[in-house]
Structure prediction request, 315 residues.
Amino acid sequence: MNRILVTGGAGFIGSHLVERLLKEKTRVVCLDNFDNYYDPEIKRRNIASCLKNSRFELVEGDIRDGRVLFSLFRKKFDVVVHLAAIAGVHPSMKKPLLFEDVNVRGTISVLEACHKAGMKKLVFASSSSVYGDARRIPFREDDEGNYPVSVYGATKTAGEVLCKTYHHLYGIDITCLRFFTVYGPRQRPDMAIHKFARCIARGKKVPIYGDGTSRRDYTYIDDIIDGTLKAVKKVKGFGVYNLGEANVTSLKTLVRLLEKYMGKKARVAMLPHQPGDPYITCADVSRAHRVLGYRPAVGIEEGIQRFVHWFRDQT
Prediction:
């Protein structure tokens, strides 16, 4: 692979992927609009070191802007990794039209640009949110009857359907990766682990929605990047893969782990359950293991310890 386009490449996951690609001597073009969903300066810091690399090019622009995409896709890319999106279950309930515009229209724009430019390989970042309150645990890619319970999940489901349609119509090889609650250094400040750590450090109450028994499949960033790189190198046909840790951790246990490694007791505020939150997420990663060679290696305790080490360096 000589040249890869990463949309949303200055974000949490994107910046880690860009760094790994550069280490592998790949030429990387990063497209990011540095929107104000959270402080744009955070994203600029994420890629500050990449700007010094001669194999890295930053293009500031929006995936919904056809002129930007037309100009950008004049360059020939071996693979497009489409990470750009607005994420978050709860914000999507407040701004559903914005989420639809960025995540659905934006994805169509990228797919259409690939088609018109003759690009034949794309990796699409989907989410465990597509499963909603799935009945069978762990979640399998071929399970039927599941449906998202949040607007964000619905936009990611729509993105997967669009990807399959463009594969059918134009023969674009597309791999959809369903990420399960990614955490680690540079995690977005609005995500639970980062938010909880900040509350504990400042002596503020940690907001716990529900009774604290809800469980998530938390996946460390290094494992997500390993899986994404494997997918990038094996894009063929159309495929959907779970990338998770294949293990679950309750909200109460998560808080205890943060207390342990931060060396400080958390003050907790128990709040009502929020609409759109599934009770559990848990990935069956056997397909990703079999086809991509995906093998998650960082357990939740080690991952939280690494996150806290990074968090302390930032404060």
User: Anything to note?
Assistant: The chain has eleven helices and 13 strands. The first strand starts at residue 3 and ends at 7. The longest helix spans residues 96-117.
